[in-house]
Design brief:
two-stranded antiparallel ribbon, globular, Spore Coat Polysaccharide Biosynthesis Protein SpsA, Chain A, nine-stranded mixed sheet, alpha/beta, 11 strands, 314 residues, 38% helix
């Protein structure tokens, strides 16, 4: 059975991981109508892989990226797509059997659902401890029975839970972009704000919070993926990653969530200090501390220097 879905995949120099994704798509009981791969690679291996991607989708389109960056490449992919549903998939994920079926059944069976994502099996939700729980309650303004799938305070987001006793489709506040299926009409145009460039930390949170203004969001417990992150964010460098995280969280807090009061900024500062302190529970955390602090200072300078127009490159 072919479903009216375009998979949009941004990639750069990772054909081996992309090949694993294609293989997992071929193994699904449902077939995608289309796949658009927006490629910023420095050689032809990914283009050749797409040319031989038979069975991964009814039609595979390879595009050379006009601008390098996860968010901008995904925007290019959506612009080139033709189907009424958009599946964002990272190039380093592997879908478990039945993943597409669970996502499709969830969104096609509920016209009010704007987007639904898969559970990442190797990135689990963990309930907070006593100290963390008290801090999260203060950030949120009230204690919650569970923070799974929630977004609180200055854009602090938690992964969904996947316990067997939960409903197969559970409401959430936000969606990550490991593998996420959106209704095209629910997406803004373009889907990703131009603030997010390069590695684009937080672009998934910003997009899903925007969609959630008019649509409901959900997590499909039986849609499961493995995220083979490898080096991942580490390639950014500690200082650059710390700066990007702060700048992008500030953008999400002020521009997406509309939180600009003194109390909102106090919670942002408190979260950043709490996050830094939490990293000092290991020797490696202490070793990274100078770079983290320098990165946060760079982020503050960017926010103060450019206001809400600060771009998220770190």
């Amino acid at each position: 059975m072919k479903i009216p879905v375009t998979a949009v995949i941004a990639t750069k120099d990772r054909p081996e991981k992309l090949a694993n994704l294609f293989a997992s798509l071929r193994a699904q009981e449902l077939a995608l109508a289309e796949m658009v791969v927006v490629d910023a690679s420095r050689d032809a291996r990914t283009r050749e892989l797409c040319a031989a991607a038979g069975g991964a989708a009814g039609r595979c389109v390879h595009r050379c990226a006009e601008k390098v960056g996860a968010a901008s490449q995904r925007n290019e992919g959506v612009a080139a797509s033709t189907q009424p549903f958009i599946l964002f998939a990272d190039d380093d994920v592997v879908l478990e059997p039945g993943c597409l079926r669970a996502l499709w059944d969830a969104i096609s069976g509920d016209p009010g659902l704007g987007g639904v994502n898969a559970v990442i099996t190797n990135q689990e939700y963990h309930a907070p401890g006593r100290v963390s729980g008290a801090f999260y309650a203060w950030l949120n303004g009230a204690r919650l029975p569970s923070y799974a799938g929630r977004c609180i305070g200055p854009g602090l987001n938690f992964l969904p839970d996947s316990r067997d006793d939960l409903p197969e489709v559970s409401p959430v506040d936000w969606l990550n972009l490991g593998v996420t299926l959106y209704r095209r009409e629910a997406l803004p145009d373009p889907p990703f704000h131009p603030h997010f460039i390069g590695y684009s930390l937080g672009e998934d949170l910003a997009l899903s919070l925007t969609v959630a203004r008019k649509w409901r969001l959900a997590s499909a417990r039986k849609a499961r993926i493995f995220h083979d992150t490898g080096a991942g964010r580490g390639r950014l460098g500690v200082a650059r990653g710390a700066a990007m995280e702060l700048v992008n969280r500030h953008f999400i807090m002020t521009r997406i969530r509309g939180m600009k009061r003194f109390g909102d900024y106090s919670r942002l500062v408190a979260w950043e200090l709490f996050s830094i302190a939490s990293g000092l529970r290991s020797a490696s955390g202490w070793a990274r501390l100078p770079a983290v602090v320098w990165g946060k200072l760079r982020g503050i300078f960017r926010i103060l220097g450019a206001g809400n127009g600060a771009r998220g490159q770190g």
